[in-house]
Each structure stands twice: as C-alpha cells, then as structure tokens.
From TrEMBL:
<dbReference type="InterPro" id="IPR026850">
    <property type="entry name" value="FANCL_C"/>
</dbReference>
<dbReference type="InterPro" id="IPR026848">
    <property type="entry name" value="Fancl"/>
</dbReference>
<dbReference type="Pfam" id="PF11793">
    <property type="entry name" value="FANCL_C"/>
</dbReference>
<dbReference type="GO" id="GO:0036297">
    <property type="term" value="P:interstrand cross-link repair"/>
</dbReference>
<feature type="domain" description="FANCL UBC-like">
    <location>
        <begin position="136"/>
        <end position="232"/>
    </location>
</feature>
<dbReference type="GO" id="GO:0006513">
    <property type="term" value="P:protein monoubiquitination"/>
</dbReference>
<feature type="compositionally biased region" description="Low complexity">
    <location>
        <begin position="1"/>
        <end position="19"/>
    </location>
</feature>
<dbReference type="GO" id="GO:0043240">
    <property type="term" value="C:Fanconi anaemia nuclear complex"/>
</dbReference>
<feature type="region of interest" description="Disordered">
    <location>
        <begin position="1"/>
        <end position="42"/>
    </location>
</feature>
<feature type="compositionally biased region" description="Basic and acidic residues">
    <location>
        <begin position="20"/>
        <end position="32"/>
    </location>
</feature>
<dbReference type="InterPro" id="IPR016135">
    <property type="entry name" value="UBQ-conjugating_enzyme/RWD"/>
</dbReference>
<dbReference type="GO" id="GO:0006281">
    <property type="term" value="P:DNA repair"/>
</dbReference>
<feature type="domain" description="FANCL UBC-like">
    <location>
        <begin position="45"/>
        <end position="132"/>
    </location>
</feature>
<dbReference type="GO" id="GO:0061630">
    <property type="term" value="F:ubiquitin protein ligase activity"/>
</dbReference>
<dbReference type="InterPro" id="IPR044037">
    <property type="entry name" value="FANCL_d3"/>
</dbReference>
<dbReference type="InterPro" id="IPR013083">
    <property type="entry name" value="Znf_RING/FYVE/PHD"/>
</dbReference>
<protein>
    <recommendedName>
        <fullName>E3 ubiquitin-protein ligase FANCL</fullName>
    </recommendedName>
</protein>
Amino acid sequence: MDSPVPATLARAPARPQARAGEEACADTRQDAPAEAEPPPRRPAAFYSSVFAQIEEIGWKQLVSATGDGVSCLTFRVVDEPGRMHLLEITLPMGYPESPPSISADVPYLPKIHWSKNSRLKDVICQFQAHLKILQEFWNTMDEIDKVLWIVDPTKPSYAMSHRRIALGDDCYILLQVDARKPNSLPECRFLGTDGKLDQLIINWRKNRKKWDTKKKFHENLAAVLDFALPSPPSVGDKAKDDEQADCGICYAKHLPVDDELGAHSGCATDYMCENPSCSRAFHSVCLRDWLRSITTTRQGKWEMCEGGVEKSDTDALEASFQAKKIGRSRIYTLVLWRKWLGGRSAFLGG
C-alpha cells in the first residue's frame, strides 16, 4: 500500500495559486481609480453670515437659493416705474473676501464695487442704481414698441436692444439701439425686396446727420427716412394676419436674418395661393426648394386645398429672381396654382 502523501506536500501546489490571486487583487486595486475627494465644505460661519445678510435685504425678496442652499441666490428687484427684475448672485468659495458675481436680464451689467466688509445689500443697492441708468433705454424701447410696427421680437426681454420694424410692402428695417445712448442714431440694416428699399437707403445715408437726440426716437426715424412709418396693426387684425402670413412650408412668417439668403434675408411671405378658400402664404425660397425636391411627378400638390403647382414653373420662378426690374413680391403670377377636377387641372382664381 502506498504511503500517504504528507500534508505539507498536499498543500504546496495551492501556494502559487494563492500568490497569483493576491497579485491579481493587488493589480486590480492599483488599476482602480482613486476615490474622488468630496467637494470642499463651507464653514458654519459662512451660512450664518449669509442668512443674516438675506435678513437685511428681506426674505420676501428672495426668489430661489440653489447650490448647497446659499451659493446661488436670486432676488426680486423692482425699479421705480414698477418693472420687476431678477438678480442672480453667485457666492464663490472665497466669499466674502472674494467678490460675488451677478447675472440679470439687462443689456449690460454694472461693475460691482466690493471690499471685504461689503454685504449682499450693497450689491442690491448698486444694481438698483444701475436700473436707474437704464430707464432712458427702456423708455425708448417702450416708445418704439408702442408706436411702430414691430415684427420681431414679439416678446422682447429687458436685455434686447434690437427691433425689426415693418415698413410695408414686405420691407423692414432692423435697428440696434445703443443701450448707453438710446437716443443716438442707431445701427440699421434694411431687409426687403429689390428696388423697393433703394430710396429709403438713399434717404438714410443723406439725412442721418439730421438725427436730433432731443426728439423722440420714432420722429427721428421718420425724418431721416423721409417716410411715413406705418402704425402697428390692431390685436384682431394682427392675429388674423399672422395666421394667414405663416409660410405653408416652413410654418414661419419671416425668414431668418442670414446673409446667405441675400435679399430674402428676414423677408416675410411673398406668395399666396390664389384659391379663395385657401389663400395660404409662402416664402418664394421655400416654394422653390419644395418644387425642386419633387422627383417623382411633374406637379407638386398642396394638401390644404388640393391645389397643385407645375414643376416647370420652377424655371420661371428661378428666372424671375434674376430679373432686376421685377419685384419678387409681384412674381406670384409666374406660379400657377391648379386644382384637380376630374383628372384635369383648372387655374385657380382665373
């Protein structure tokens, strides 16, 4: 009978495996990423100090507090005419030795003067002083919005200093008002169809030196352009016009302001379906691209009134864009809207 294997010899093969396992575990621990250090915590004195400073301003003025509770504070600030503003104050880790940063819906922010003894109420006071400076700018913008026909932005914020004003006949002027000198001559850009803006551009260049900062903004604009500026439409008419003027392809009233669109930049719809039951408007650019996208048939079909337009009219439309003597807004007669009746097409509105 064979003698039994000593216990020491029986356990011997397991040792290299154990070492290999230990080495593998060690390698795994080395490869594992180090645990991220927790973010630095503010001292308790910081919170008690900030709470006391909020108390000085008034808890009713505090709209929100985010970022560990007090790192980002939003206060409600009302200016003298009654406009409500939201002032966001962010407290850095080094606060109060490091100054806070602010954010608000204003055309430009004030420079905050800060010392190690300053408090949050000092920031509020400096912002209120800044709001007083901006009153002339906002009064000017309110005058523009009330008297002139504004097409964009429809709901301007307090920070916006631009307005796109309708001049009629698919022509517009894009104004950029200087928030620091709101009654001065603004920057402008004319948008519209060829031939219709030429005289307005000539008048602007000739009369711009006549701009009088003592006059009202809209009076100056009318005098420099030597043009009777149209009044804004009534609420009912505006809603009806907006519904009818949205492009049936891109569903927007105005094209974006983009240099790549050339003379069409910022323009409103300039084509309309001649079917009285439809009368849907289009941008000529959108209509042209839509016609070009049709590859399976010679005729595009408009689903709103079951009308159609011949693809062959695309060539006429393209040629009309090159015709300098023809206004683009009057070239709609080159596009023939047709309605299917018993397999035949009939001219709409003919």
